Fold:
Amino acid sequence: MNKIISAYINLLLMITIAIVLIFHWFSMSKDKTEIDYLEDALFEV
Structure:
């Protein structure tokens, strides 16, 4: 049971790190901050 839980936690950690890296790469490549993305998402509606 503990192996399943630790594997699940490791998977969540990898997904979280991947999301952070993707957002960081987008902000680097477009010179935008997370706030700019939030504003774009709000004004696109």
